[in-house]
Amino acid sequence: MPGVRSHRQERPVSTVVETDVLIVGSGPAGASAALALSTYGVPNIVVTRYASLADTPRAHITNQRTMEVLRDLGVEQDVIAHATPQHLMGDTTFCTSLAGEELGRVRSWGNDPLVQAGHELASPTRMCDMPQHLMEPVLVNAAVARGTRLRFQTEYLSHTQDADGVTATVRDRLRGDTYEIRARYLIGADGGRSKVAEDAGLPMGGQMGVAGSINIVFDADLSRYTAHRPSTLYWVLAPGATVGGIGAGLVRCVRPWNQWLIVWGYDVEAGAPDLTTEYAESIVRQLIGDDEIPVTVRSSSAWTVNEVYAETYSTGRVFCAGDAVHRHPPSNGLGSNTSIQDSYNLAWKLKLVLDGVADPKLLETYTAERAPVGRQIVTRANQSIRETAPIFEALDGLSPQTPEQLWANIAARKDATDAAETQRTALREAIAFKVYEFNAHGVDLNQRYVSDGIVPDGTPDPGFTRDPELHHQPSSRPGARLPHAWITSGTRTLSTLDTVGKGRFTLLTGIGGERWVRAAEAQAVEIATVVVGPGREYEDPYGDWARLREVSDAGALLVRPDGFVAFRYASAAEDAAALLTDALERILGRV
């Protein structure tokens, strides 16, 4: 009313925003970190310098371990609804162009019958093809719905840290002003040119820019060349395909069979070509091999093949994840998978430290556990590029020559001569060897952590009975992911992996393991208990769990929130309470 003065006091505007965890970057690593933290009830803010989430397909292969993570975080079905299913991923084809001659195929991504059996035995999940521009919204939408605060067009500039937290300076790219965000911890998930990692001084090994590549995203109905041999990847051996790039020309299916992405190389020393629409269309036409099909180029971009890995993933209260700490080509489809798994490893540890349940020493296990994985996948991805060369070598296509000579070499394999038979054999063997890129099931699932977050049980490591890159070997050894087995609870059938996770520890035992159950229930930290046996809440009708658990009925497995076995005891123990308490104290860094 006129003449009436308000007695409400004006509050001073704070220039500092506060949160528990600040995440820089909204890609797979940042988005999954936000999702996990919000699922666990940890306040967090995500800032990204961009105006939107990913607008190109980029990463896409989503392996079983990542699907297990997404299953635990409650978004598995959302991913399945948008993804290309496994059975449409796996006829990886080598050809002179999509319309040209086919040189051979590899049954890939678990679609070989023998490999498929291994996939079904290993996990309750199925791998799929989920392009990044579809994956990021699933992760981010779920994170925001659970409490994440997301800020687009907000650029990270710098940070300082002290004994109590991290103060980051960011710039609002719309307004142009800067402000500070105060967090107890900072996660740098800002990609392969990570400024957070640079500012944190994380030591890196390897080399950036070892080769040049171009991505071309386009629309075209290519069903006549692809639907009969459904695949995520079609590799083209054509003149110029060995210059830079990832070993050969690549036509990648984004959505069957009308959305595509081409990867083509360039000489990194000469610099990237001028990415005009005309240039992009010429490459598309070359790799399709059909000038009549309508093509619409959506975008093109240049990037470099890197072979870089961080030796440590954190400094003080600053942690980095994803491409910030492992930078490599897309071979083997490991990038977003490893990024999501990095964040999943870190998030539960941050939760327990923030809650005062664990000592900050627990966070030191992040580097100890994830850095070896990062180095392995960088090495594996770059090795896969080099393993394409023998295919060209079988066709005498590595030495400089005219296109006509390469086509003649390819045609020569059809001759009824000893030389041609030798050539055919070499070509078949070279293509078959690409199984290390397209069916590396062990690389996906065989991680074995060694850190202070794992309590060894004193048994000798038996190693692997088969090639550990190709074949998954389940184990309940401390440091291994809990083996999957189908068990029942009433009328429900569920995986052993469905009994663990959800942000808490889980103790699995059987008949005779009552002391372990009582010991778990007496702990200050939340531990779910799972008793498997006849007449118990969970039963093992197939006997699969009994074969995989590697302990007796009365033995115990303590599983961390990320599904990895942290402690194992083979039998019943009168001092179960003391043993479990001691193990937890060690795992949580309290001793």
Give an overview in words.
31% of the residues lie in helices and 25% in strands. It is built from 18 helices and 25 strands. Strands 1, 2, 8, 9, 10, 11, 17 and 18 form an 8-stranded mixed beta sheet that branches. Strands 6-5-13-14-15-12-16-19 form an 8-stranded mixed beta sheet. Helix 9 (335-354) runs antiparallel to helix 10 and helix 16 crosses helix 18 (576-587). The radius of gyration is 26 Å and the shape is globular.
Topology record:
Layout: E1 16-24, H1 28-39, E2 44-47, E3 61-62, H2 64-72, H3 76-82, E4 84-85, E5 91-95, E6 102-107, H4 113-122, E7 128-129, H5 132-145, E8 149-151, E9 154-161, E10 166-172, E11 178-188, H6 195-200, E12 204-219, H7 223-226, E13 233-236, E14 249-255, E15 259-266, H8 277-288, E16 296-310, E17 314-315, E18 318-320, E19 326-327, H9 335-354, H10 365-386, H11 389-394, H12 403-412, H13 418-432, H14 435-438, H15 441-445, E20 486-489, E21 492-495, E22 505-510, H16 514-521, E23 527-532, H17 544-548, E24 556-559, E25 565-569, H18 576-587
Parallel strand pairs: 1-2, 1-11, 2-8, 5-13, 11-18, 22-23
Antiparallel strand pairs: 3-7, 4-7, 5-6, 9-10, 10-11, 12-15, 12-16, 13-14, 14-15, 16-19, 17-18, 20-21, 22-24, 24-25
Individual helix count: 18
Could you tell me the mean pLDDT?
Answer: 95
C-alpha end-to-end distance: 66 Å
The level of helicity is: 25-40%
Residue share in β-strands: 15-25%
Q: What is the 3D shape? A: globular
**Main beta sheet:** 8 strands, mixed
Task: Give Rg in angstroms.
Answer: 26 Å
> What class, by secondary structure content?
alpha+beta
Total number of strands: 25
